[in-house]
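Quick one: examine this chain and its backbone structure tokens and tell me how the chain folds. Here goes:
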Amino acid sequence: MMMTPQPRAWMLTVMILFSVALGAFLGTAFQRPVVTLAQSAMRTVATTVSKTEALSAAEAMESAFVRVAEEVSPAVVTIYARRNVSRPSLRFEIPNDIPLPFDLQPRRGGRTFEPVPIPTRGVGSGVIVRSDGYILTNDHVVAGAERVEVVLSDGRRLEGKVLRDFRSDIAVVKVNATGLPTARLGDSDAVRVGQWAIALGSPFGKENTMTVGVVSALGRREAIGSIMQGQRYYPNLIQTDASINPGNSGGPLLNIRGEVIGINTAIESPTGSFAGIGFAVPINTARFVMEQLITRGKVVRGFFGVMPADVTPEDAQRLKVKQGALITSVTEGSPAAQAGIQVEDVVVEYNGKPVKGELDFRDMVARTEPGTVVPVKVVRNGREITLRVKVGEAPPVDEQGRQREQPQESGRKLGISIERLTPELAERYKLPRSTQGVVITEVVPGSAADDAGLAVGDVILQVDGQRVTTVDEVHRIVSGHKSGDSVIFIVRSNTDEGAITRRVRVEVP
């Protein structure tokens, strides 16, 4: 007779209980072996049930991963970026009195270096977010590419047109196709440490690769790349231990529901390969950038002109606040300055929404349309004040991560490039958040500044005894000097012995 698992378990339980009762009834001589037999039977049932439950749970988890792979993999692409890299070619010096064949005549005339273009091909990943051919990826995957080729999961190869945003390291690639499979975008603000993290992409060119880990940390800040070749500052990254390697860049980081929560971007590794720490740009940031690139062709961000910081426990006690964004500097003439925001104000509410900290505040400002007047609630000396700020437009950033609109006349005069110290630059030069001033980002070899000992990363605190916090202030003071004059700089420098403040005398050429 066939029996279902449930009646069998019921009958076995009845038999075990009967055995226990029988052992108690038979007395001391037979009680121990009978009871022992009954207990062993009970352990066998419990073990069987627990193994069944564990196997069912494992199979359910396995099914969840399989479902994610099957649903999302068709929307993941491989991106090949073709670039021409210039490398010098050496010409040897040939004396003019030595006769040469006709075909070598043009090469006569000294030793010179001439750039020779060498074609290269980089590989990255991307994720289709719109069925009409829009693909999200990293900007560094396609930056400088003369031709971008997208390989779909079905093997089709399509040429892509690129829209880029250097600041966020997000780009959109458009291919001429319709009806494409797409991935669902999640909410990165809802991501929590410990949740499953699944990476899809083409590490080392191995297409359709899936790796699994967890969300290791949130809100990571990283400055990645060399200063000379262009360094990017990432103020808010998702950290994961899902295996990410070269070629994964631009691919999706997913939750267990198969929703994109980030765009895989970078790894922390002494070898250049997976070492257990990977980073992804949150999808909410990527979505904002994507929408701007598609609709405007560029990203327009709001601008306040302040340097915010998180509120420390000491700040909270001193300023009588629980949370918010502490204003550590205000640029003269900026929207914040015009509205009356001051240093040591704590922004606790922005446009009716509570501000949790620095990143929260930065994100709110960046996503505000320039020209919008926003009510901002600040705590000043223990009192709440509401100010109305007309949000400006954030200046564009070039490939070196510099704000292009900053005036540089005074810097060129002395042989330096200078910029207002922003959180990004503070992170780049390993400066504490409380540092204020103007930072030197370039020193021309042999210039007056170089001869005087000024260096990249020095922060100009004073010029001729006057405190400076903007490039305009430095320009105004230096432009008043004529050739042969001396300009006295007070700068903060980083040395092997630590941070020092020193006086530097620069002769105006």
Observations:
- The two ends are 106 Å apart (CA to CA).
- The chain has three domains: 75-95+112-299, 302-393, 409-507.
- The domain at 409-507 is CATH 2.30.42.10 (Pdz3 Domain).
- The CA atoms of residues 99 and 119 lie 35 Å apart.
